[in-house]
Amino acid sequence: MQICKTIPALRQLLDGYRKEGKSIGLVPTMGALHSGHISLIEKANSANDLTVCSIYVNPTQFNNQDDFEMYPQTLEKDCEMLKPAGCDVVFAPSHNEMYPDGFHENLIQLNFGGIAEELEGKFRPGHFNGVGIVVTKLFNIVNPDKAYFGQKDLQQFLIISKLVKDFSFGIDLVCCAIVREEDGLAMSSRNSRLSQEERNEASLLFKVLSEAKEKLIFGEDVSVVGNEARQQIASNQFFKLEYFEIVDIKSLKPIHKINNLEDIALCVSAHLGKARLIDNMLVKTSKVGVN
Known about the structure:
Elements: E1 2-4, H1 7-19, E2 24-29, H2 35-47, E3 50-55, H3 65-70, H4 75-85, E4 89-91, H5 95-98, H6 120-123, H7 127-142, E5 146-150, H8 154-166, E6 172-176, H9 196-201, H10 204-217, H11 222-234, E7 239-248, E8 264-272, E9 275-283
Parallel strand pairs: 1-4, 2-3, 2-5, 3-4, 5-6
Antiparallel strand pairs: 7-8, 8-9
Helix pairs in contact: 7-8, 10-11
């Protein structure tokens, strides 16, 4: 496994592989890796000759400075996980390498339309602009054949899909299933911030999502299901609910009725101690009302 810290070094290395006709899969991460990230590496390995993992805590996607400063940076440990997983190349640039003119002012502004204004967009102003900038940079630097993202960040995946389409990137995007702990908690680098007491409560989000999905499949009213889910989370003293929404998978706008023309997603965000947790579940509307 090779580690590149500069753009020219990475491009030179990858150009050599391309001349040999090898395909390249990219797994963009911010490090602090866990089994969910490793599952993306394994997916990339199965479909490409070469797997590149980027590790970069991108400052432009943080609307909360404290969150940025607290984000764990564990490059050495990450590399220890990546090597046996079959990663071929790690790209671990500095801030100066990615933003040579600085990242505090005069950034390009990307407008993703209404899809960026729903859910996370209401609570993290500027987040998706930062995501769009860094992903565009990574796509231009690596020029992968395929890029792999986790379903846990569903809204991010949909926005990056729009980015790829609008900028005509010749890249296939792959959305990979959420990897969960035994109690259902979605794996996240931020889970390390939970105290033991908070960790014991954390599976509530998975429980609420699962129950809401089952209710929808059995034909219960969308508004009733959503309100019951919100109440269940809000009534837990450990959680501070931001949103629980049942949305159209294409627009991410809340829905009030289900029809067979739209697949839907149940999306949730809540603070638990010092961690902000997000999760989601997808529902095939063709299966709704089959009780």
